């Protein structure tokens, strides 16, 4: 079954925590597409990207604590958040879905794919990595950010805001998605805690669902070497790099990113 369509987010209980969920559009027999936010982000970060999928049901949600509603559970490690995510799918009556995780959300998507493979038809990982063992950030990234010089297609201030839970100034319609006013510090710290010591390298080869690894080729946070290594570690994964793309793909390159994801979903449906 697929979840019912909603116009505005609603609060639902998932394992004792109240979370904001938005189920948008209709799938017309297709699997819903579950979108997992970046670090500190609320579901509004997908507004531009989501508008490119009028023919598919999208499931968007906030992680525990992010919405400003206190989370009932103690901070969870990544495996605990993966289990929590499957309970969210249960709560909205979705048995199986395609999953797209961006940045931090790509980490959680990998964990769900390992722990609950029967719940995932296709896996898309955008602007993300495999945790411990990754290559370091591109040289001079931090100094470039602090001096506000250009970095690929991303505005340096946007990247700095994104790194601390923000979305950037050239997408004012998304400013409610992640900033110190609208996003809870408790939720942000919970996500950082879940990353502690995490890596998927030992088990990526076990994943068997169709997988897309997507990244910008000028991403200062995710070097292309990391994207290539991530794709190579997953059997049959396809790698797609957006030329000139930076880190904030759903915000700054939503049309290009959506086109690649749409083609991937079409191909695995054939």
Description of the molecule:
The chain has 270 residues and is α/β, with parallel strands linked by helices. It has a single domain (10-269), classed as Rossmann fold, CATH 3.40.50.1820. It is 32% helix and 17% strand. The chain contains 9 helices and 8 strands. The protein has helices spanning 47-50, 78-91, 104-115, 141-147, 156-163, 185-195, 224-233, 249-252, 254-269, and strands at residues 10-14, 17-24, 33-36, 58-61, 97-102, 120-126, 211-216, 238-242. An 8-stranded mixed sheet has the order 1-2-4-3-5-6-7-8, with helices on both faces.
Give a quick set of tags describing it:
8 strands; 9 helices; globular; eight-stranded mixed beta sheet; 17% strand; 270 residues
Stretches where pLDDT is under 50 for at least 5 consecutive residues are 139-152, 163-182
Shape: globular
- The proportion of residues in beta strands is 15-25%
The fourth-level CATH homologous superfamily is Alpha/Beta hydrolase fold, catalytic domain
What is the architecture at the second tier of CATH?
3-Layer(aba) Sandwich
Average pLDDT, rounded to a whole number, is 83
| Spatial order of the strands forming the largest sheet | 1-2-4-3-5-6-7-8
Q: Helix and strand succession?
A: EEEHEHEHEHHHEHEHH
Strand count, sense and closure of the main sheet?
A: 8 strands, mixed
Number of H/I helices: 9
Number of strands: 8
CATH topology: Rossmann fold
CATH class membership: Alpha Beta
What is the percent of helical residues? 25-40%
Classify the secondary structure makeup into a structural class: alpha/beta
Gyration radius, in Å? 17 Å
First-last Cα distance: 20 Å
